Task: structure prediction
Amino acid sequence: MSANHHENPITRGVAEFIAGLHYDQIPEEVRHRTKRLMLDALGCGLFGADLQWSRILQQRLGKLDATRTCAVWGTAEKLSAPHAALVNGTQVQGFELDDTHLLGILHCGSVVLPPLITIAEASAGMSGREFLTAAVAGYEVGPRVGICMGNEHIAQGWHSGATAGVFAAAAAAARGLKLDVEKTVHALGIAGTQASGLMAAQFGSMVKRMHAGRAAQSGLYGAQFADAGFTGIVNVFESEYGGFCTTFSRSNDRFKLAELTAGYGEVWQAMGVRLKFYSCVGSNHTALDLIREFRAERAFGADEVAKVVVYGPQATVEHSGWKYVPQGFTAAQMNLSYCVATELIERDCFVDQFTEEKLTDPGRMELAGRIEVIHDPAITARGPKFRQMLRVELHLKDGTRMERTREIGRHKVEFGSDAEVIGKFEKLASRVLPKAQVDALCDQVLNIEKLDDVSSLAALLVRR
Result:
């Protein structure tokens, strides 16, 4: 890094990618994947409309905000663009159902789509191809920021969905507004100075859900203000004093600036985004997959389980390996012991497995108490790519012992078939919207390149 306080080859490089991206440059497989990622995020956001924390934000913002231009997904309500982005981002992240990028440690859809859809609503005439291009910009930039920062960023207490997320949101919004390179630099600089989010939110609070909403809103502000001529930190990534990377990492050797501009046009990070088929934090999915594999080998009931021992990296132990204590839905969905106990009892760990009664169910809590999570230094030593590697030992009361190791959860390797992706979307969206509307929305998203005006898609997100 240079002592020149305004040198910004990295920030400018990111901005050049965003401003210069065109639909025809995006490989067909990336377009195909991104459409399915968008469909999944919209399903999560629609399901999130009726959650308690979403309702609180909808109602209070409805009192504070008299502007009615942008849809609150899954409701009949409208708010101003910034408040709609805030609520919709919160809804997508509202029940631990949304996508995740393993190395970038980022939920992309929750920060990319909410600001972008407000832009499509406000300025009629954005084509489906333009919308998809802007979305890809967000799905590319956000994970690269997370990869640059590495596991240490979360380990020291920052929630990357809220910090790196502002750049994914700003990238999508800047491309949606067709900002030039100079204004895109400022959009990134305005968004980056708003980055924040504390991991302590995972231990029993509603506010973790809001981190994505605030990141979506901050990215929207960045692009909209830059469009109006407002200036931001032009070297937001490089600055040695007060820059994003130096401020959000303990030391300069913990982040890798080169990752921010690496591989554009060659490596497409959207292909590394995966979907969740369990309603819980991604670090728990490997263990849940292994429980299902054990059951496939030998049928057993939860009452036959003596104990389960899960060995994992330090990041998993800190993130989800703490002793389960009922502190609300967030804590349950983040806690590995609770989720494994739930899978053992119900043979599933999706939305219906998380209710007020189940969070404090004595039998489930007792079983969770027999599920131990232990740090395995050998797994930690293998580095970030093995962040979700787990070794699980299952001990049955009859003395049977089963053990298996997996490097990663199944859907972190296999994206999921079109039938699985559409099935999940329909299962979630149909709780809020009628079938005909769900079908129309699915069709428009999966064929978005054919739309002349994406505002028709936005209209399908409204509960009529």
User: Anything to note?
Assistant: Residues 187 and 226 are 5 Å apart (CA to CA). The two ends are 54 Å apart (CA to CA). The chain has two domains: 9-275+431-459, 282-411.
